[in-house]
Amino acid sequence: MKQGKLVTLAIESSCDETAAAVLLEGRRILSNIIASQIKTHQVFGGVVPEIASRHHLDNVNKVVTQALEQADVGMKDVDIIGVTYGPGLVGALLIGLATAKAYALAAEKPLVGVHHIQGHISANYIEHQDLEPPFMALVISGGHTNIVQVTDYNQCEVLGQTRDDAAGEAYDKVARVLGLGYPGGPLIDKIAKQGDPAAVAFKRVFLEKGSLDFSFSGTKTGVLNYVNSEKQSGREIKVPDVAASFQQAILEVVVAKTVGAAVARKQDKIVMAGGVASNSRLREMMTDACEKEGVRLYCPSPILCTDNAAMIGCAAYYKYKAGYTDGLDLDADPRLPL
Ligand code: KG4
Ligand code: ZN
Questions:
Q1: How many domains does the chain have?
Q2: Which of 5, 23, 133, 325 is the most exposed place for a label (fewest CB within 10 A)?
């Protein structure tokens, strides 16, 4: 292993962002480039996998070149190449992975495959330079909703996960029914500020006593049924009230389970990660609940909450420091377990 400060080049392409980043010593961003495809997928109301792959192919070399240029780093200066290899859309993952392998082979650099969720959690190490494990993590995005006990940089245990929709997925579907557009999470967040969270009592699904799993599809279907029956009765739908009531129902469960898990395991830190972690109501409710329990709350800024390559670079750095590297036979795994 090289002495001195390590430079990591990272690539992320698991869903609809093609991203590349360069980091110094794993926690300092030298560049963080994200080519978003949101506009392309907006017309379809969701991510179309084939289109996502095609865009990744068009953009991946451009974002890598831009990331190196902006960081003022040449390939010869890079020590580690980190890349997301799962979970995600297989066609999308393959493009980032093949690119990372090509750079690793051509420049003779070590390749480190990263789990996408491990990446999301690691965004907090960049944002909060003093943060160290152990802590309780809530990973809440369009693809995942997990409560994870992080014991060390490369060690964690999944305590709970969604049994159906991810929270962000439920947000996106409800937003579509309310005619708000895509992606729905930020739009619900915004419009709910003018609504009454107690206007409609949507189902809070806690599952069996003690379970840290989630189920959001019942609450989501409750909103769809409510909207349909109001329409059929000719009543006007108060979109801000429905949005505020929906997110209140989801977030009460999320906050209670996450803070409950931290208290039960005597953890004094909770870390949030993933796209939905930038939700303002979630941040408010978590801040209040954590204050009551004497738990410190950590959350990345919005640009590090949604998919990016800096978080992948940070996770790759800690894997490399612990001695993990991958061969060029590393395969993409769309359902990679944590
Ligand atoms: O982490 P991310 O970029 O991709 C996945 O790994 O899934 O998360 C995207 C998800 C989308 O469902 C989007 O609607 C949601 O995060 N999201 C939000 C907010 N910002 C993004 N949901 C609620 N409130 C927000 N402010
Ligand atoms: Zn993600």
A1: 2
A2: 5
**For the domain that residue 139 is a member of, what is the CATH number?**
3.30.420.40
Q: Where are the alpha helices (DSSP H) in the chain?
A: 38-42, 49-71, 90-107, 116-127, 167-177, 184-192, 217-232, 239-264, 280-293, 302-305, 310-321
DSSP code of residue 179: T
The tens digit of pLDDT for each residue in 181-215 reads 988 999 999 999 999 999 999 999 999 999 999 99
Q: Is the CB of 185 under 6 A from ligand 1?
A: yes
d(CA 314, CA 152): 14
Q: Is the CB of 87 under 6 A from ligand 1?
A: no
If asked whether residues 159 and 190 sit together in one domain, one would say: yes
| 18-47 residue pLDDT tens | 999 999 999 999 999 999 877 777 777 778
Token pair listed for 133: 């494990």
Rounded CA-CA distance 214/227 in Å is: 23
Terminal-to-terminal C-alpha distance of the chain: 26
C-alpha torsion sign, points 31, 68, 21, 186: positive
Task: Say if CB 2 and CB 24 are below 8 A apart.
Answer: no
Quick check: CB of 88 below 6 Å from ligand 1?
no
Domain that holds residue 192: 133-300
Distance from the alpha carbon of residue 309 to the mean position of ligand 1, in angstroms: 16
Residue pLDDT, tens place only, 108-162: 999 999 999 999 999 999 999 999 999 999 999 999 999 999 999 999 999 999 9
Q: Are 154 and 121 in contact (CB under 8 A)?
A: no
**Res. 2 pLDDT band, cuts 50 70 90:** low
In short, whether 119's Cβ falls inside 6 Å of ligand 1 is no
Assess whether the C-beta atom of 300 lies below 6 angstroms from ligand 1. Answer: no
